[in-house]
Design a protein that fits this description.
The structure is a homodimer of 404-residue chains. Chain A has 404 residues and is α/β, with parallel strands linked by helices. Chain A has helices at residues 38-44, 86-92, 111-124, 137-149, 163-171, 183-197, 210-214, 216-224, 241-255, 276-283, 309-318, 328-342, 348-362, 384-394, and strands spanning 4-9, 15-16, 32-36, 82-84, 96-101, 129-133, 152-158, 175-179, 200-201, 232-236, 265-271, 322-326, 371-376. Chain A is built from 14 helices and 13 strands. The first copy, chain A, has a six-stranded mixed beta sheet with strand order 4-5-13-10-11-12, with helices on both faces. A four-stranded parallel beta sheet of chain A has the order 8-7-6-9, sandwiched between helices. In chain A, α5 links the parallel β7 (152-158) and β8 (175-179). The longest helix of chain A has 15 residues, at 183-197. Chain A is globular and about 50 Å long.
Chain lengths: 404, 404
């Protein structure tokens, strides 16, 4: 094991050794990425080696940062189902529509992957107090993995974060601070206390390992498609670590010679009440601007400014992808539609993907024969209060009883 | 494929052909069990064949009732993580303590397994309208798999069932009837409408295939322990299908020669507010009596009388197991303890297992070196309202903020 070569700044390219706790690049404060000795991995790992590996994300141990199985802090994250959506596909004329269902993760969310990797590495490198600002699920996941690892967690979340996130964080024994405002306000408050107490910052892309966990979504897609990739990936984008991570995974798999140079078109979906990436993409900008007054019931998408915005935008463009904003009403309808047709209770963030696919189909951007993967990033039942609140605001009744 | 030999009555032993829709035994109204041609399976299946099978419960296709992959109605159920509980084990002196985490299933509950199998077979055999009385998660799972299969579902649940179950059932487009009373009252009301409308009854053990889905928990345990079995299995028991199913799975694996004759001691855990199996077990009875005034916040355990009680009791005795009742307060404390020590947000039913293990340890029934598996049957975040309500009833504050 141990094929990590170095940490590399995603902007200025500067290198750092990976043997100690690190946050962002000391020179330019941009996200650090883990670089592997792919040549050496290629000599040591064959696809068939995976056959008797555990059915979780740690099956890809050689391209992950930990040295040994003992270092892994795991709750069984990853290797989630890739579900064909036959009925929804038939309705809308797609023959190869799939859902990667991340609700099947511990804590009911894709955040488990990133925090499993981050907490494993933080503990290994000596951190004892971890902190995070969160739009919801990341806080729950940090609390869970910190408890599992026996280290302390301090979670800062907006007061109107879904109750499930608040509860799960408390149940895992973390300190929870509820903040009036958005994740950006939570981050500001956290940073003051972090400096005073010497906590380790686990914010998205402010440490190099959450992205390593998230990239396993890309590794799994490749394996599940028989070491090819789908034509299009549609991904709900808050902080965007998953999208950046998958893009990195594809480069690494290509470097290993496990896939060819064909890449999926990457599509970022955001809520029209908070769409900084969509705006920047269509304006041709390289970075996004802080989105004032962010508001959407897709709580995970209430991220006014992503630290890795330039990496997201670059992946969208390199892949000839696009970015789409959908309204909360469209998202709500998508929850009901996918529920009734496929029996899957999407989280609002996941539902934005189906709303976006319908738009892109209408515009002719997507064609019926393409293989398309939507991401459901979490379990719908973690969002009962947000959905109910949206129904109240909305007034109408989409469906008898659902507002009860 | 197609190694099903017949359906066999679990009480009178009568045989039926498996080629048409069936409920209970036409002669004595007891549950029907699927019997396989194990000799033929033995010739056709090797353990190594499983290596490249999908990582869900359908990897065991030969010992399951469907004929082909096309017949399977799946949302990615099963092959859930078996998590070692090192920290909790150290606290309490157990060296081999494990949790089988069924929260990692679609719909966030172990009910997905049984309903995946039942809906697959019901659709195959021509049913178009399915109905179920439910204490909660089974209704959500039936609704989900029915939507996925394109058949209708009618779900009857107590009005005080957790909101997550009500919501998920509606989102999947099922008809939901809320009933003042318990699952037994819901069942009575359902039966009237069922007869009028010719719906197919998917109640626990009133059709033969839910148990086939549930038994995969036993198949997985055997595979995950390297084709041996743990010393003790601790299982929260409402309808008890999972326990009966695992016991059946072990017999079948023995018949295939994949495991030896050693069996785990099976432990049924119930809530002290509804403990008919515990009572019957300690009174030496072969069947249970209807439990009057059932009340517990472990909603899945509010089953006053299980149709398969005699099968549960017989498995407990054959295995030299036992039955334990725990109070809601003990269950609540177990949720907090497992949350803080292992980062896992257990559902109340799952938490009863940890409360029971502590009791059995104190009594000397369990010893430190035994391998012990607890079952967490669902995701804690589906129970926010039940937990909050329990905290209110209770008055006290176990932990700052958790009552918010």
């Amino acid at each position: 094991m141990a094929f990590v070569d170095r940490l590399e700044c995603s902007r200025c390219g500067d290198s750092l050794q990976a043997d100690r706790l690190a946050n962002t690049c000391p020179k330019c404060e941009s996200p650090l990425l883990v670089r592997y000795d792919l040549h050496e991995i290629k000599r040591n790992l064959k696809k068939t080696d995976l056959l008797d590996r555990p059915s979780d994300m740690w099956r890809y141990l050689e391209v992950l940062p930990v040295l040994s199985e003992q270092e892994i802090v795991s709750l069984g994250e990853g290797f989630t189902a890739l579900l064909p959506l036959h009925r929804l596909g038939q309705d809308s004329g797609f023959s190869r529509l799939y859902l990667k269902d991340e609700a099947l993760n511990p804590t009911g969310s894709f955040k488990a992957r990133g925090l499993s990797a981050a907490v494993s590495m933080a503990r290994k490198l000596g951190a004892e107090q971890l902190c995070i600002p969160t739009a919801g699920n990341a806080g729950g996941a940090l609390a869970a993995y910190a408890a599992r690892a026996g280290v302390a967690a301090h979670v800062f979340m907006p007061r109107d974060t879904p109750q499930a996130n608040y509860f799960e964080t408390l149940v895992a024994g973390a300190q929870v601070v509820q903040v009036d405002g958005l994740i950006s306000d939570a981050a500001r408050l956290m940073q003051e206390q972090m400096r005073q107490n010497q906590w380790f910052d686990c914010s998205t892309l402010k440490e190099p390992y959450r992205i390593e966990g998230k990239k396993t979504m890309g590794l799994e897609l490749a394996e599940q498609f028989g070491w090819t990739l789908p034509d299009v990936i549609v991904y709900p984008t808050g902080g965007g670590t998953g999208l950046i991570g998958m893009w990195k995974a594809f480069q690494e798999l290509d470097g290993l010679g496990w896939i060819d140079s064909q890449r999926p078109r990457m599509v970022s979906v955001q809520a029209s009440g908070c769409a900084p990436i969509v705006k920047a993409f269509h304006e041709g900008a390289d970075t996004s601007q802080f989105w004032e007054g962010a508001a959407t019931f897709s709580s995970g998408l209430r991220v006014p400014k992503a630290l890795g915005d330039f990496l997201i935008l670059s992946a969208l463009r390199e892949s000839q992808g696009t970015a789409v904003a959908v309204s909360d009403e469209e998202t709500y309808q998508a929850i009901l539609e996918v529920g009734a047709r496929e029996g899957i209770f999407l989280c609002p963030e996941g539902a934005t993907c189906w709303a976006a696919v319908k738009k892109l189909r209408k515009e002719g951007w997507l064609s019926p024969d393409q293989s398309i993967v939507l991401f459901n990033t979490g379990a719908g039942h973690k969002y009962l209060d947000s959905i109910r609140q949206f129904e109240e605001t909305r007034g109408g009744k989409a469906r008898a009883g659902l507002e009860a």
